[in-house]
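Q: Here's a chain of 92 amino acids. Please give me its 3D structure as tokens.
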Amino acid sequence: MLSEFKKELAKNKQTYLKIKAMPGAPKTEVKGETADGTIKIAVAAAPEKGKANRALIEFLAEEFEVKKGNITIISGAGSPIKLIKIIFNFQF
């Protein structure tokens, strides 16, 4: 079941998240939030050949219960700071 936060995000059918990816971690998990609201996520993949980006998308797809194809890196594919778009296609 989605948390209240996730339900609120899904009401608009899409959302944008600013994420700071921290690749090379022992496991992929949310580590907190910066002062400007950027979500910090440790990623258990190396930052090479798109591995960390793919792992981040897989993690977000699981967390938000959407298909991987519903998640797009809008900007920052080669940077730790990324703008992510998530499209929700389910009803409550």
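Q: Can you summarize the key feature?
A: The chain is about 25% helix and 35% strand.
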